[in-house]
Design a protein that fits this description.
Belongs to the VPS41 family. This is Vacuolar protein sorting-associated protein 41 homolog. It is a peripheral membrane protein. Keywords: Autophagy, Cytoplasm, Cytoplasmic vesicle, Endosome, Golgi apparatus, Lysosome, Membrane, Metal-binding, Protein transport, Transport, Zinc, Zinc-finger. Plays a role in vesicle-mediated protein trafficking to lysosomal compartments including the endocytic membrane transport pathways. The radius of gyration is 59 Å and the shape is elongated. Among the domains are: about 355-450, Serine Threonine Protein Phosphatase 5, Tetratricopeptide repeat (Alpha Horseshoe); about 455-695, no CATH class. The protein starts with 17 loop residues before the first helix and ends with a helix. The protein has about 850 residues and is α+β, with helices and mostly antiparallel strands. A four-stranded antiparallel β-sheet has the order 1-28-27-26, covered by helices on one side. A four-stranded antiparallel β-sheet has the order 2-3-4-5, covered by helices on one side. It has a four-stranded antiparallel β-sheet with strand order 6-7-8-9, with no helix packed on it.
Length: about 850
């Protein structure tokens, strides 16, 4: 049965603390349940006095002197009638095979649970505590301690007899004892002692803080966190003690170990029990004001204080009748289970698992976090299902009218469950929110029945044309019956035949249905941008042969590019015929054709002259320059009719009538710069003479000539012909420019001369170095005169060989006389052929 803690209303009408009544947003750390089954029956007629916990079972002692062995669920498996009065303490060894029991009437029993052999003794005073050696089941560790007025150690010797030894006495009643490894800790009226069993030494004495409290009413709580860390709780004080090894140099007569208090702090309530939880502490508190419920807190110890992590008020049975000494806290180290024992109730506290975490999130309506937690830990959760949590989240969002978020979650939660998908769609239809879920419906490999998609499309068609068009674009055509939707759209178009959204959507539906001609008609009618893509994708060129004008009117650039890219499908001649009645469109087509290839449309070049003149004069002159197929006479006639001077000048010059072209520039354009540029291009002396003659009586023209002809015509010819007394604007600047240009030319010539001389000298030196190198003469060389081997067969006799720089070789006696200049000889071959030095090398290579 689930045990309720804080925020629980009791039958008496009482509540917990006011702070606990509020709906806290902080998640509890522990969950609780009452240990029932056999325990409930036992506590109805008896009362719990003590309990000890093993990983495998529990041992419960009662006020009527009975000991029950219980399984983890609380069912009684064994019963021992030990005494007729209260059982004070039960101790188990680590194996769980041996038990030690002491009672208020002085009885002590230590025996094996499976043998019943062991120690059975009765003393004349109450025995409050008993503790077995943790390794009691092993033959060499048969030791246990008991405590009343004295702390006694019992040890079985080799004769199988029990030997008793007094470890401590004289400081009042022993109220608690805990044995861990080789360390025994016990509490009496004055404080807590620790005994090192391995060295037989007592190593510390931790004094009690509040001596005014009665030890029997507020007993000391002891708990070993590990083999060297002891936690002490007494009254409202908690101390954490660490047992450490002493440095050998400091020992002298001191014990091998010492105790350091690493944390000490006060609490608000009286301590009934302690247990470790990782690096935190689980503490059972008693609030003596108004006999309030006991509290189970988790605290984080600090050196001189503590931090509260969580605090739960426990509604145990008959808590109003209990005192601090009536509560105990035991724990199972293996599973982090904490048992709160009171006379009439035993409550088990557990760490909350992922299922409990999800329960709390769902209770707080934090569905998003609950779903995330379930997804992350789906392998570990046992009571929850990810999909069910998701459905609860969707229901919550729908209840809060957050329909878009609910629809978005469907995609994640419903997954591939077709039935759930269809149920959700019908639910959204019922609440009038089909639009919200439409964009999240599955549309890939997983698909719903076509009727579902058609239902949503019909709903959009009634209320939202734009949304309908969006779904048609986004949804694959295979999701629904295309013909049924086409019919529905046509029905709506009868009421609104010019609606562009419906027409565009209808064209898309026709495209899905492969009725491209219908789609093309609609796109052209609407002048839709996708018409060109449709033509390309489905190769509809045969369908547009009679619609070229419409395409050009819609977008000239795209239409022309498409036609030119597909000349093999729609010929140039076909396009020209179609555009014949629309010359402005024909010009655009032929102009782009000419730009791509100057020769493809050559038979239309004559017609293009008139089209350029009419619609695009800026490109007429470039066309005339680049075309080699247009008739010049026809072009000249058109240009003269329209008085296109620049084009006429170009045509005249191209036809060879340069004088007439220059005359038009001077007379009609009156542009001396252009006339000079024209004369430079033609590079004809007679043109320069005509230009000077025409300009000699026009001062501005003379200035222009003076500034520009210096590099083509001797300026003196122009200056001599200028009449005396004629005023010429900027004459001084023009003369200065002429002189400057002349000086510049002189400098350039001098610079070129220096470079030429330097290069010649460098080459001469290089040739000299080359000619001064040694020349190899061997048996392979012959005399160029007698054609015999240049070297004699008998090298011992003197001989003379002449080698010229041209690499021709002669016997000295084979050379002719040196001639008029004594000592000067020439190669006969090179002199005869009038070749320079080095020619012989080339000849030899041949």
């Amino acid at each position: 049965s689930v045990f309720l803690f804080f925020q629980e209303r009791q039958q008496s009408g009482e509540f917990t603390d006011e702070s606990e009544e509020e709906d806290s947003e902080e998640e509890p750390k522990l969950k609780y349940e009452r240990l029932s089954n056999g325990v409930s029956e036992i506590l109805q007629s008896d009362a719990a006095s003590c309990m000890t916990v093993h990983d495998k079972f529990l041992a419960l002692g009662t006020h009527f002197g009975k000991v029950f062995l219980l399984d983890i669920q609380g069912n009684a498996t064994q019963k021992y009638d030990v005494s007729s009065v209260k059982i004070n303490q039960i101790s188990l060894d680590e194996s769980g095979e041996n038990v030690g029991i002491c009672s208020e009437d002085g009885k002590v029993q230590v025996f094996g649970l499976y043998t019943r052999e062991g120690f059975h003794e009765s003393f004349d005073c109450p025995v409050k505590v008993v503790a077995l050696h943790p390794q009691f089941s092993r033959s060499n560790y048969k030791q246990f301690v008991t405590g009343g007025n004295k702390l006694l150690l019992y040890e079985r010797n080799w004769l199988n007899r029990w030997k008793m030894q007094v470890l401590h006495e004289g400081e009042g009643t022993i109220t608690n004892v805990k044995w861990r490894a080789n360390l025994i800790a016990w509490a009496n009226n004055l404080g807590v002692k620790i005994y090192d069993f391995s060295t037989k030494q007592r190593i510390t004495n931790v004094l009690r803080d509040n001596v005014s409290l009665r030890p029997d009413m507020y007993p000391c709580s002891l708990c070993w966190k590990d083999d060297t860390t002891l936690i002490i709780g007494w009254g409202t004080s908690i101390k954490i003690c660490a047992v450490k090894e002493r440095n050998p140099t400091e020992m002298r007569d001191l014990p091998n170990r010492y105790v350091e208090i690493v944390s000490a702090f006060e609490t608000e309530f009286f301590i009934c029990g302690l247990a470790p939880l990782a690096d935190q502490l689980v503490t059972l508190f008693f609030d003596e004001e108004d006999r309030a419920r006991p509290r189970l807190d988790i605290i984080q110890p600090l050196p001189e204080s503590c931090e509260e992590i969580s605090s739960d008020a426990l509604s145990v049975r008959f808590y109003q009748d209990n005192e601090c000494r009536d509560y105990r806290l035991e724990h199972s180290e293996g599973e982090s289970l904490f048992y709160i024992i009171s006379p009439k109730d035993i409550v088990v506290a557990k760490e909350r698992d992922q299922d409990d975490h999800i329960d709390w999130l769902l209770e707080k309506k934090k569905y998003e976090e609950a779903l995330m937690a379930a997804e992350i830990s789906f392998k570990n959760i046992k009571r929850h299902d990810v999909q069910k949590i998701g459905m609860a989240y969707i229901n919550h969002l729908v209840e809060n009218r957050d329909y878009d978020a609910a629809a978005r979650k469907c995609q994640k939660v419903l997954g591939k469950n077709m039935e759930l998908w269809e149920n959700e769609v019908y639910r959204f239809k019922t609440i009038g929110q089909l639009k919200a879920i439409s964009q999240y419906l599955p549309r890939g490999d997983l698909r719903l029945r076509p009727a579902i998609y058609e239902m949503i499309l019909h709903d959009f068609l009634k209320t939202d044309y734009e949304g309908f068009a969006t779904l048609i674009r986004e949804w694959p055509g295979e999701l629904y019956n295309n013909m049924a939707i086409v019919q529905a759209v046509n029905d709506h178009l009868k009421k609104d035949p010019t609606n562009s959204t419906l027409l565009t959507t209808l064209a898309e539906l026709y495209t899905y249905d492969q009725r491209y001609d219908r789609a093309l008609e609609i796109y052209l009618r609407l002048r839709h941008k996708d018409v060109y893509q449709l033509i390309h994708r489905h190769n509809l060129f045969s369908s547009i042969e009679d619609k070229i004008v419409l395409l050009m009117e819609f977008d000239k650039e795209k239409a022309v590019d498409m036609l030119l890219d597909n000349e093999d499908k729609i010929s140039i001649d076909k396009v020209v015929v179609e555009l014949d009645r629309r010359p402005e469109l024909l010009h655009v087509y032929l102009h782009k054709l000419f730009k791509r290839d100057h020769h493809k449309g050559q038979k239309y070049h004559e017609r293009q002259i008139g089209l350029y003149a009419e619609y695009d004069r800026p490109n007429l002159l470039p066309f005339l320059r680049d075309s080699t197929h247009c008739p010049l006479e026809k072009a000249l006639e058109i240009c003269q009719q329209r008085n296109f001077v620049e084009e006429t000048v170009f045509l005249l010059s191209r036809m060879g009538n340069c004088r007439r072209a220059l005359q038009m520039i001077m007379e009609e354009l009156e542009d001396v710069d252009k006339a000079i540029e024209f004369a430079k291009e033609q590079d004809d002396g007679e043109l320069w003479e005509d230009l000077i003659s025409y300009s000699i009586d026009k001062p501005p023209f003379i200035t222009g000539l003076l500034n520009n002809i210096g590099t083509h015509v001797d300026p003196i010819l122009l200056i001599k012909r200028i009449k005396e007394g004629m005023e010429i604007p900027n004459l001084r600047d023009s003369l200065v420019k002429i002189l400057h240009d002349y000086n510049l030319q002189i400098l350039l010539r001098e610079g070129c001369k220096k470079i030429l001389v330097a290069d010649s000298l460098s080459l001469l030196k290089k040739m000299h170095r080359t000619q001064m190198r040694g020349v190899r003469v061997d048996e392979g060389n012959i005399c160029e005169s007698c054609h015999s081997t240049i070297l004699p067969s008998d090298m011992a006799q003197p001989f003379s060989v002449v080698v010229f720089h041209c690499r021709h070789m002669f016997h000295k006696e084979c050379l002719p006389s040196s001639g008029t200049i004594p000592g000067l000889q020439f190669c006969n071959i090179c002199s005869a052929k009038r070749r320079g030095p080095g020619s012989g090398i080339l000849e030899m290579k041949k």
